[in-house]
Amino acid sequence: MQSHHRPAPLGEFELLVLLSTLSLGDNAYPVSVARDIEMRTGRKASRAAVLITLERLEDKELVRSRYGGPTPERGGRPKRFFMVNKRGVHAVREALDRIASLTAGLEAVLKSR
Amino acid sequence: MNEIAPSPFRPLLWLLRHVSSPAAANAVVGDVLEELTEQRAGGRGPRYPTLWVNLQILRALELEMLAALPRLVRSAGLILRDAIRAMRAAPAHSVFVMLVLAAGIGVGTLTFSVVDAVVLKPLPIHRPEQLVSIPVRDQDFKVRITPEIYWHLREQLGSVEMLAARINLGGAMATVAGVKSQVTVAHASADIFEMFRLSPGVGRLWTADDEARGNTDVAVLGYRFWRQQLGGDPAVLGSHVTIGKGTYTIIGVLSAASDHPEVGDLTNAPVWIPMVVPRTSSQSSSFGIVARMRPGVTPAQVAADVQRLAGASDWRPAVTRLHDGYFARVRQWMLLALAAAGLVVLVACANAANLMLTRSAARSQEMAIRASLGASRRQIVLAVLVEGLLLSLGATAISLLGCVIGVRVAKSAVLTALPWMFRASEISLNGRVLAAATATAALTGLLFSLVPAWHTSRAPLSSLLKDSDTPTATGRRRWRSTFLTAEIATVVVLVVVSWLFVASLIHATSVNLGIDRNNLVAVMPRLAFRAPVDEVRQRIEKVPGVSGVALSRASSLPLFGRAFHGAWWTTTLERAEGAAGSAPPVAALQYRVTPNYFAVAGVPFQRGGTWDADSDAAGSVVVLDELAVRALFGDEDPIGRPVRASEPAGVFTVVGTVPHVYARGPEEAEQPAAYFNLKHEPARMFAGLLVRTSRPPGEMAPILSDVLRPVGPDLDEPFVFAGEDAVRRLTATRRFNAALMSVFGIVAMLLGAAGVYATMASVVAQQTREIGVRVALGATPGRIQRGVLAMACRHLLVGLGLGVPLAWWLSRGFAALLFQVSPADASVYIGVCALVSVVGCLAAWVPGRRAARIDPLVSLRR
Predict the structure, then answer these.
(1) Does B23 touch chain A (CB under 8 A)?
(2) Of A35, A47, A50, A59, which to mutate for an interface test with B (greatest number of B Cβ within 10 Å)?
(3) Are B678 and B538 part of one and the same domain?
(4) Could you tell me which residue, B285 or B437, shows the higher pLDDT?
């Protein structure tokens, strides 16, 4: 049985995956998320790592998944779509707040570099 | 561009589906294929798409497994916790199951420890099954392989890789590097070292070249002798070994790797000296032959080849594997004992399974609640299986604690009863035994909890409301009956087996041996007396308590020869009258005795009598036993009739007939016997004396040993033996295996009784309400009790019905191990049926009494 206490803070890659999933909306599945992260951050993200992260986030009840219909270009196999739920959005907000609170006052330093 | 999508490797897909889920696995494959399409579109497609796809799936599988690991560990912990809780919730049940299993596993472990040490553990030499010994003489002691044939075999015998001459001479007095001791000397040709894979630790071994060049005055020492007697001093090289008149220079010592005292006669002879078989056409053969067969060749093939090459059409040599010499005569019954122990474990398993089923009935509500709260069937099955495994591990721990003492007891029992038993001193609770016990525990744990686990997981939610009428409860009852019946059938098999062995022992010990073994002593040294044999006789006759002394050639002393040491001499007898249609020649044991032999041995005459030692005719008379008389003369009176013998050669007149003497023990094949006169002053070697005493042999043997010490051989070993000891030795194996099988029978019987008791008690406990209602409606206590007994009897009847034919069928397989009792002996089966029925009814009587005393008011309130 899953507990409903506060989830553990997000790791960096988890945050990236959650943000990308949020921005992709209804079209977030491992391949698209990996592509999106790579495109927007320049960071190489493997599809397998994205999938396992999404599954971990699902265990933490931050995202949920559903299967789409069969897709001919994928050999007739369905896509597994992921959606960020309320707890997920809350966790993203908390993580961004933490970063914001840590970066407060560092604007000058960060810009000068 | 529409390229064909590569298909993933099926086993990988199967694994992935099981680690995640079929839908998720499908989606993963879709992702991989989409990525491949994308890469191809970008012109970056992999060179080997199929390999790439499978590697990607492998990677996904790896990540899924890593992610699932903590979850698996967590659920394993939960299952373990549940199992421990379940055990603690019913401590009496758990302890009972563990004790029942411990009894079974204990018996299995103990038996395995003995059988493994003696029979199963391979010999410590290279490919021992390929080593054979080839006899050089036939059963009449006639030389069949002369030195000339030996060399012919060496060159022509294709079925063996190599062949060597070898003979071990024990008890030789030797001076080795200045140390005088009595040792066994191995005379062997150089090939023996390669054949047994023996290498030098110090110096070198002699070679075939040495033998060819005549450098044969060399010796090699055995490792253990060198360490213990010579302090492991490498300086012994170059010093000398003196044996009799021969002197040999020590050129090497065998390596530590050759030290295997358990097969000491092969590898641990203290002194090894070259044996060179002459290439002459001598007719004497004072050597033995050992050979290493080529892979896949059988001793029978070697025997056929030897027979052909030796040109002996009438003699098929008894080629035997060397390792048979160590355990061949116990192998079959030891394996039978192991199988019987396996059956005892099965009885314990069936018993435990029944107890678990009873418990699962009591837990069906708990399981239904669990299932309703979301526990999967797999989780429930696993919980019960793990409980079973834990119980059997607990039982193994208990049985191993018992085995610590049990193995010592078993070892000392074997060493006492069967001191000659191969590797008996190696019986121990070692790694192999522990591994076997653990494997048994795991197997029994699974075996006895499989059905209860399956049953528990099938409990429908309706069992929350009531238990007795659900299909599960009916199924459980059916399984319980099945287990109980199987248990009774197995008990019947085991009791039949032990009964057959005990009956064999009774028959073997009640055979009239034809000789009065009470107050009979034999003086029979392995080597020559140091004084004339007549002087030895005079010394014995002077001892108070001695009433008669007879002389014999030692090798033909009945009972003693087989029990201690001695060979058999045979002769061929035929009627010398030339009567037409007379009987064919008879092979008989040949005795050479003084005329008072029959009186001293307590062998009565049936006809005629003994001869007069001083008469001239003494050398031309013979006494025959009843078998020889029947074979040669049928019902005719043989007294005064001439008989021709091959050894001693001549024609002899029959002067008396005596009953048959079981000279080699009660179980050996009966062979006719002929008694010839022994000349006045027999050779000191191979001389034996039979002594009739008026006091118990236990008192007389030490006195005789003391009196004969000055004239006995220079050997530190006993040479005075009591008749009773000889018989005890001859029947030792029979007594031991009867005792062992009895233990199995008794343990199985106790387990079976416990099974009947526990099942009936649980039936009564579960039907308390029903019984209460019946009592309230007027059933008498006697009727209730009879009902329980009738149920037990039904199980007993079916169990006997299955067990008796099974026991009969199985026992035909070991008929050769029985003595004077047929595997189909009706009396055995009637006895076993009666015994099992009585014990079963007694076991059911207690729960029956309890049922009869149920108070309807109390039971209906429950």
Answers:
(1) yes
(2) A47
(3) yes
(4) B437
B35 contacts A67? CB cut-off 8 A: no
Cα of B33 to nearest chain A Cα, Å: 6
With respect to residue B648, please indicate whether it lies within any of the assigned structural domains. Answer: yes
pLDDT at B461 over 60: no
Indicate whether B487 and B391 sit together in one domain: yes
For residue range B629-647, list pLDDT tens digits in order: 999 988 889 999 999 998 8
B290 and B168 together in one domain? yes
Residue B771 lies in a domain: yes
Which residue, B322, B344, B377, sits at the end of a domain? B322
Pair B596, B745 in one domain: no
Q: What is the pTM of this model?
A: 0.74
- Match 């493997």 to its residue by tokens: A46
Q: B367 and chain A: CB distance < 8 Å anywhere?
A: no
Q: pLDDT tens digits, residue range B702-748?
A: 899 888 888 887 777 788 888 888 888 888 888 888 998 999 999 99
Is A58's Cβ below 8 Å from some Cβ in B?
no
Comparing CA positions, the residue from B600, B654, B665 lying closest to residue B628 is B654
Look at residue A105 and tell me whether its pLDDT is greater than 60: yes
CA B14, B15, B20 angle in degrees (round to 5)?
105
d(CA B789, CA B845): 7
Count of A-B CB contacts under 8 Å: 60
Contact A77 B29 (CB under 8 A): yes
Question: Smallest CA–CA separation between B58 and chain A, in Å?
Answer: 10
Q: Which residues contact B320 (CB under 8 A, 6 or more apart)?
A: B132, B133, B299, B328
Asked, for residue B110, whether it belongs to a domain, the answer is no
Q: At what angle do helices B826-852 and B781-811 cross, to 10 degrees?
A: 150
Query: Average per-residue pLDDT in chain B?
Result: 86
Closest CA to B196 of B100, B283, B260, B105: B260
Residues B707 and B831 in one domain: no
A-chain CB neighbours of B24 within 8 Å are 80
The helix (H) or strand (E) run that includes residue B172 is strand B160-176
Under 8 Å between Cβ of B145 and B134? yes
Fill in the DSSP letter of residue B122: P
Q: Which fold has domain A12-105?
A: Arc Repressor Mutant, subunit A (1.10.10)
Q: Is pLDDT of B658 > 90?
A: yes
**Cβ-defined contact of B37 to A73 (cutoff 8 Å):** yes
B113 inside domain? no
- B811 and B833 both lie in a single domain: yes
Q: CA B689, CA A79: separation in Å to the nearest integer?
A: 100
What total of structural domains would you count in chain B?
4
Chain A CB contacts of B31 below 8 Å: 29-31, 47, 51, 74, 79-80
Q: What percent of chain B has pLDDT over 70?
A: 94
The residue extents of the domains of chain A are 12-105
Cβ of A77 within 8 Å of Cβ of B67? The answer is no
- Say whether both B381 and B529 belong to one domain: no
Interface test with A, best of B26, B28, B54, B75 (most A CBs within 10 A): B26
Say yes or no: B805 contacts chain A, CB-CB below 8 A.
no
Of A46, A52, A74, which is closest to B30 when you measure between CB atoms? A74
Owning domain of residue B621: 525-718
A52, A73, A74: residue with CB nearest B67: A52
Q: Give the residue-averaged pLDDT of B792-815.
A: 92
B702 with B800, same domain?
A: no
Chain B nearest-CA distance from A15, in A, is 18
A55 neighbourhood in chain B, CB within 8 Å: 64, 67
- Tell me if A51 and B37 make a contact (CB, 8 A cut-off): no
